[in-house]
Structure formats: C-alpha cells, structure tokens
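Database export, one record per block. Field names are fixed; values are copied verbatim from the stored entry.
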Amino acid sequence: MIDSTEILKDIISMTMYVSLPALLAGLLVGVFMGVLQATTQIQEAALGFVPKLIAVLFTIYFTFNWSAEKLSTTSVKYYENISEYSKPQSYVFKNYNN
C-alpha cells in the first residue's frame, strides 16, 4: 500500500527534477553576468535580467519535450492507480469497542 507521503515525495521530487535545467541555466547566466558587471563596473539592472530571461526561456524550449514526458508518465502512473490510493487505510478505522 502506498502512503500519501510517498506520493507527495515523488511528486515534489519530480517537480524539482523537471525544473532543474531552467534553474541551472538562470543561475549560471546570472553568475556570469554578475561577474561581468562587477569587472566592467556597469550596474544596469536590465543587463543582468534580460540574458537570464533569454537563457531560461531557451532552456524551457529545448527541454520541454523531456519535461512533458516525465510529468505525463508520473501523472499517468498515479491516475491509473487512483482507486488503490482511495481505499480506506486500516489504521483510520480502528475498533474502539475493546
């Protein structure tokens, strides 16, 4: 029997796994732009924001098929077994007559 905490753990870890490429792209471009701004002493906010936005959008574009496949297989796995998850747990219905 699968516990609800296992389902939530799997869903949260899948969400982190799928969002990791875009977050890493934003992080790497952000660090690079920060170092570039510090060395050139150009303190323009848009100079750091626009490249990060472009990098994250390109990463999402190129990893969309992979992430959609991962999310859909996880969703199908849980939707196919939803009747198994909705059964009452034995520890919920204890006999208190004793």
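Remark 1: The mean pLDDT is 85.
Remark 2: Helices lie at 4-40, 45-80, 82-85.
End of record.
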